[in-house]
């Protein structure tokens, strides 16, 4: 058998080995945008694999939720999980033009003390916002006039001029393009938020889980580097 034929045979055998069901966790906005296309590409390579995608903005316990792996956006807290970092998301402060016209534009982070803010309750310290300028962090306590555990709801509240918000830039790109919101405090951006793929500790991962983690990590590293 030629080397080429042997390589094709080996590849086919690997494909046949990857089968079964994977339960994957992700957040409600990131999952449909970035994880579903990756899942589709993986399933085209491995048609014997079935996927269950669980979308939840909170960090679910991998074992209790019976997840094979999950994509975490934010600082990790579960030391029992294995993890690989795949990138980071640029975060920005933003507001609706209508809000800024009525309440004024903050010039430095400290000005936020006098503004209404839209709070994501699932973040580690939801009412303490950190900004960076020249590499130096500055943390500001803010007052919540609207809060939610759902990122999409928070972004929409900001676009409706309820208050000022912070979000990953990719989430509000469409709102920026249409003029519903604009960036503020661009010289004092919040630090980027890390993105990890996590999975339960195990002496031996199933072939399908290991294959998907490697495939997903490679795709995300490439895709996240391309984001503004």
How are the SSEs ordered, and which strands pair?
Blueprint lengths: L2 H15 L2 E7 L3 H16 L3 E7 L13 E5 L7 E9 L1 E5 L1 H7 L12 E5 L7 E6 L2 E6 L1 E6 L2 H9 L5 E4 H10 L3 E3 L8 E8 L6 H19 L3
Parallel strand pairs: 1-2, 1-3, 6-9
Antiparallel strand pairs: 3-12, 4-12, 5-10, 5-11, 7-8
How many strand elements?
A: 12
Number of helices: 6
Query: Separation of termini?
Result: 49 Å
CATH architecture assignment of the largest domain: 3-Layer(aba) Sandwich
Instruction: Indicate the radius of gyration in whole angstroms.
Output: 21 Å
Supply the helix-strand structural class: alpha/beta
Shape: elongated
CATH topology of the largest domain: D-Maltodextrin-Binding Protein, domain 2
CATH-defined superfamily of the largest domain = Periplasmic binding protein-like II
Strand content: 25-35%
Order the strands across the largest sheet as they lie in space: 2-1-3-12-4
Structure description:
With 228 residues, the chain is of the alpha/beta class. The protein folds into two domains: 3-88 and 193-225, D-Maltodextrin-Binding Protein, domain 2; 91-184, Periplasmic binding protein-like II (D-Maltodextrin-Binding Protein, domain 2), CATH 3.40.190.10. It is 33% helix and 31% strand. The protein has six helices and twelve strands. The chain has helices at residues 3-17, 30-45, 97-103, 151-159, 169-178, 207-225; strands at residues 20-26, 49-55, 69-73, 81-89, 91-95, 116-120, 128-133, 136-141, 143-148, 165-168, 182-184, 193-200. The chain has a five-stranded mixed sheet, with helices on one face. Helix 2 (30-45) crosses helix 6. It is elongated and about 60 Å long. Residues 5-10 have low confidence and may be disordered.
């Amino acid at each position: 058998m030629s080397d080429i034929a042997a390589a094709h045979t080996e590849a086919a055998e690997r494909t046949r080995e990857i089968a079964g069901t994977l339960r994957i966790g992700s957040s409600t906005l990131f999952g449909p945008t970035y994880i579903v296309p990756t899942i589709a590409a993986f399933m085209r390579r491995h048609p014997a694999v079935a996927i269950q995608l669980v979308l939840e903005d909170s960090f679910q316990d991998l074992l209790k939720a019976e997840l094979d792996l999950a994509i975490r956006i934010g600082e990790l807290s579960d030391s029992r999980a294995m993890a690989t970092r795949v990138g980071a998301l640029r975060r920005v402060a933003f507001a609706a033009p209508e809000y800024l016209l009525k309440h004024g534009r903050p010039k430095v982070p400290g000005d936020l003390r006098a503004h209404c803010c839209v709070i994501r309750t699932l973040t580690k310290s939801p009412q303490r916002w950190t900004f960076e300028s020249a590499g130096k962090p500055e943390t500001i306590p803010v007052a919540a006039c609207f809060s939610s555990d759902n990122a999409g709801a928070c972004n929409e509240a900001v676009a409706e001029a309820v208050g000022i918000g912070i979000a990953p830039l990719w989430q509000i790109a469409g709102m920026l393009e249409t003029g519903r919101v604009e960036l503020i405090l661009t010289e004092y951006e919040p630090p980027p938020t890390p993105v990890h793929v996590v999975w339960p500790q195990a002496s031996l991962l199933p072939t399908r889980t290991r294959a998907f983690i490697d495939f997903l990590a490679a795709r995300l590293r490439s895709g996240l580097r391309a984001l503004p």
